[in-house]
Every structure is written in structure tokens, then in C-alpha cells.
Write a structure and sequence with these properties.
Layout (H helix, E strand, L loop, with lengths): L1 E4 L5 E4 L3 H10 L5 E3 L21 E3 L9 E3 L3 E5 L4 H8 L6 H9 L3 H6 L2 H6 L8 H7 L3 E6 L2 E6 H6 L1 H4 L4 E8 L4 E8 L7 E11 L5 E9 L6 E2 L1 H7 L6 H11 L13 H6 L1 H14 L2
Parallel strand pairs: 2-4, 3-4
Antiparallel strand pairs: 1-2, 5-6, 6-9, 7-8, 7-9, 10-11, 11-12, 12-13
Helix pairs in contact: 2-3, 9-10, 10-12
């Protein structure tokens, strides 16, 4: 066990194994939280989170098991402390992982991508602009959590919808992404330049028949509402039809009103909703261009 005082009575405990981390979180309950890359935690003062100095942190970045990315023919298993840069590098060459690799490789900026972890990105509950959330939703990923009560695995959709109750006292351990003959795309609109939070994100994964018919399609939208979610109406309208960028744009424009855009400093809610059809069109064009 390694502990250090970080000032103002705030103890930082550096966990050396998964079991050690879970035990440390339980021993410091209910206030302790995991600390991974700290790129979200370090901005607590900017978000005016008043009591961040009193939080006992359990650092998990030194746990080897959490940094692994394992790829086999059926699935990809990504440890929660894999960084954006590591995910982008490992998945970049896999033809069925283009969407996920694009999410990892285009979020934030190179300095943040080298430090920020996939687990921290998904567990920052108030962060609406996560690139990984819609990309993992579209990819049909599952989440594995570990707490003193044991392990549990759940679909990304359920995890995202229930994060605020699931995360306290738990560690996100890994993400499991099924593999298949899927094409995928991740399209994001940053307002001004690389490094800005995306205003809106559309992630798509599709299985196409040889004649171009979409046998399966999964579409997820991020950064528009407070939590990323799938777009079921668009999915059902596009399933069983040939991919067609103009038709997808028209369908998205007709149904974009089903999203309630969130107002935030970088863009108003109405704008986030208005750009969705263009992002859908772009995502379909990317899928069409993939071999
Ligand atoms: C300048 C800048 C630009 C950015 N741009 C983007 C962007 O374009 N797209 C994007 O998606 N993100 C962006 N981000 C956000 C960034 O991706 C997140 O800050 C980062 O992924 C958080 O990961 P971390 O490892 O630093 O988490 P930390 O800051 O260490 O933790 C974040 C939260 O998650 C909890 N946590 C961490 N790991 C776990 C775990 N394994 N289990 C349970 N809880 C855990 C922590 O307790 C904390 O509450 C940007 C950030 C910055 C600073």
C-alpha cells in the first residue's frame, strides 16, 4: 500500500492491483473516487466543484491489467486505463474498428490523448461531449465493473443511462467490443479548432450485404443531449435499405426534433440539433467509401 499526502488533508492512495484499488475505494467510502489520467479531475476548480480538495483519490493508472488492449477474432477488450492514444494506435489498423479508432484519435488534442483514459472519459458523469460514448454505443460494446460486491457486465446503453448510481464505489475495469463484418464511422463537429469539445457527434456501424443493403445499422448521437444515445427511428428507417446519403440526410432532418439539444458555453442546443443531418450524411458517405 502506498499513500501520500497531497496537501489540505487530501490523501492520494496509489493502488497496485485491481483488488487493492477496490479495497481502497471501499475503505474510503463513500467519498473516495478513482483517479486515472486526471485530465477531468484537474479541471474541478474550473467547474466550480467546491469540495474537490477534500476528496480521497485512489490512483489506478499503475495497474498493468487496466492498461491492456487485447484483440482476438471475436472481440476487443480494452482496459479502462488505456489512453486515447493507445486505443487509436492499437485499433487504427483494424478494418472493422475505424469508428472507434477515429473517436480515440480525434478527441481533444495530442497532449490530452496521451494521458486521458477511456475509463475516465466514460466515468466523468457530467461530461456530455464524450467521443467514446457514442462510438462504443454504435459498436455494441459492453462494460465490466468491479466493486467490493463483485463483478458485473452490462451493455453500454444501460451503463450510460445509470452511471451516477453505478459508478460510486465501483471501478470500470474494461470495455468489450464485439467484432464482425461491420463498417463504422465517427463524425464530429468541433466549433472552431482541434482540441475544442465537439458540438455534436454521429457514430455509425453497419453490416452491409453484397448488394449494399444495410442488414444491421446502429446509430448513436453524442454531445447533443446530456448523455449519448442511439437514434432508433433512423436505425429502423435505414435497416433493410441500400445506404443512401441523401435519403439518410432527409430522414435525419425529419426526425432531428426528437433530440433536445443542450445549451452550453460552446453552442446552443438548437444548433447541436440542426447540424445532425449533415453529420449523418457524412457518416453514411464514409461507410459507403469503405471496402
Ligand atoms: C483540453 C481538453 C479537451 C478535451 N476534448 C475532448 C474531446 O474532444 N472529446 C472527448 O471525448 N473528451 C475530451 N476531453 C475530455 C477528456 O477525454 C477526459 O477529460 C478524459 O477522458 C478523462 O479521462 P482521465 O483518465 O483523465 O480521467 P480522470 O480525470 O482521472 O477521471 C474522470 C472521472 O472518472 C472517474 N474514473 C476514472 N477512471 C475510472 C474507472 N476506471 N472507474 C470508475 N471511475 C473512474 C474519476 O473518479 C473521475 O470522476 C478533453 C479534455 C481536455 C482537458
Amino acid at each position: 500500500m502506498t499513500a501520500s499526502q497531497a496537501g489540505d488533508g487530501q490523501a492520494l492512495y496509489v493502488a497496485t492491483s485491481l483488488g487493492d484499488a477496490v479495497a481502497a475505494l471501499a475503505a474510503r467510502a463513500p467519498h473516495a473516487v478513482p483517479l486515472a489520467g486526471a485530465t477531468w479531475i484537474m479541471r474541478a476548480p474550473i467547474r466550480q466543484e467546491r469540495d474537490h480538495r477534500a476528496i480521497p483519490y485512489v490512483a489506478i493508472g499503475a495497474i498493468d491489467e487496466l492498461r491492456r488492449i487485447d484483440v482476438n477474432d471475436h472481440e476487443i477488450v480494452i482496459g479502462a486505463c488505456a489512453t486515447h492514444a493507445e486505443v487509436a494506435a492499437r485499433l487504427g489498423g483494424l478494418p472493422d474498428c475505424r469508428g472507434l479508432a477515429a473517436a480515440a484519435g480525434n478527441a481533444a488534442n495530442p497532449a490530452i490523448r496521451r494521458i486521458a483514459t477511456i475509463g475516465g472519459n466514460l466515468c466523468a458523469v457530467k461530461f456530455a461531449a464524450s467521443d467514446f460514448a457514442p462510438a462504443l454505443l454504435a459498436a455494441g460494446a459492453r462494460v465490466e465493473l468491479l466493486s467490493a460486491a463483485g463483478e458485473r457486465e452490462l451493455p453500454m446503453e444501460r451503463f450510460l443511462a445509470n452511471r451516477s448510481t453505478l459508478i460510486p464505489g465501483s471501478l470500470l475495469v474494461r470495455l468489450v467490443v464485439p467484432r464482425g463484418q461491420m463498417r463504422s464511422a465517427h463524425v464530429r463537429l468541433p466549433l472552431r479548432k482541434a482540441g475544442d469539445y465537439p458540438v455534436a457527434i454521429v457514430s455509425m456501424a453497419a453490416k452491409l450485404a453484397p448488394d449494399g443493403i444495410a442488414e444491421e445499422i446502429c446509430i448513436a448521437v453524442g454531445s447533443v443531449e446530456p448523455v449519448a444515445r442511439r437514434w432508433p427511428h433512423l436505425e429502423s428507417e435505414m435497416t433493410g435499405r441500400k445506404l443512401d446519403a441523401d435519403r439518410a440526410h432527409a430522414l435525419a432532418a425529419a426526425d432531428a426534433g426528437s433530440f433536445s439539444g443542450r445549451d452550453a458555453v460552446e453552442a446552443p442546443g438548437w444548433y447541436r440539433v440542426q447540424v445532425l443531418p449533415a453529420l449523418v450524411r457524412r457518416a453514411v458517405e464514409i461507410l459507403q467509401a469503405q471496402p
